[in-house]
Specification:
The protein contains 7 helices and 5 strands, in the order H-H-H-E-E-E-E-E-H-H-H-H. The chain has about 170 residues and is of the alpha+beta class. Strands 1-2-5 form a 3-stranded antiparallel beta sheet. Strand 3 and strand 4 form a beta hairpin.
C-alpha cells in the first residue's frame, strides 16, 4: 500500500522540489495537478498546450512508453483534452523559458538532451522523496494521479469531469 501526502506535506515537497530539483518541478506539478500518466506528460510539447475559449488545455494524444515514442495514447479513451489551471500554465511557461524549449520540442529532456523515460521520472521522484525526508518508497509518482482524483472528488468535482480528465 502506498501513502498520500497531506496538504502540508505536499507544500513542503513542492518547495523542496523547486529549490533542489528545478528541472523536475514542472513534471511534479503536472503529475499532481492534471492526473496525466508518466508517458503522457513525457511526450508533451509546447505546441500541445493551447488556450481554448477562456481556459488553457493540454492535448494528450501521444506517449512515451518502454523507451519508445508513440503517436497514440494507451487507449482510445486516453486521447483527451486536459484542463490546465492558470497556475499550471504559469509553471509550464516558466519551464519552457528557463530550459529554452522550442515549440515542437519535448517539454522534458533527460540529462543528455534525449527524451525522458518512466525510469528517469521515477528516479527523480525517489530522489525528491529522499531529500524531502521520506522513504524512497513512500509513494510512486503514479500515485500522484490517484491523489489528484481523491482531491478533485473531495472538492466536490463531478465524477464525470474527473474521469474525462484522467
Amino acid at each position: 500500500l502506498r501513502n498520500r501526502f497531506s496538504t502540508k506535506e505536499l507544500k513542503e515537497v513542492i518547495d523542496t522540489c523547486i529549490e533542489k530539483l528545478p528541472e523536475f518541478s514542472c513534471i511534479f506539478c503536472l503529475a499532481r495537478l492534471t492526473g496525466m500518466r508518466e508517458g503522457e506528460y513525457s511526450a508533451l510539447r509546447p505546441c500541445d498546450i493551447k488556450r481554448k475559449e477562456n481556459r488553457y488545455v493540454a492535448y494528450v494524444d501521444k506517449q512515451i512508453t518502454r523507451g519508445e515514442y508513440k503517436n497514440r495514447t494507451k487507449t482510445k479513451t486516453s486521447t483527451r483534452i486536459v484542463d490546465i489551471s492558470d497556475n499550471m500554465y504559469d509553471i509550464l511557461q516558466w519551464h519552457i523559458k528557463t530550459f529554452n524549449i522550442d515549440y515542437n520540442d519535448f517539454l522534458f529532456r533527460a540529462d543528455k538532451g534525449g527524451m525522458i523515460y518512466a525510469k528517469w521520472v521515477e528516479r527523480k521522484f525517489e530522489k525528491l522523496l529522499m531529500i524531502s525526508g521520506y522513504d524512497e518508497k513512500f509513494c510512486r509518482v503514479h500515485d500522484l494521479r490517484g491523489q489528484y482524483v481523491d482531491l478533485m472528488h473531495l472538492c466536490g468535482v463531478p465524477v464525470t469531469y474527473i474521469s474525462k480528465q484522467v
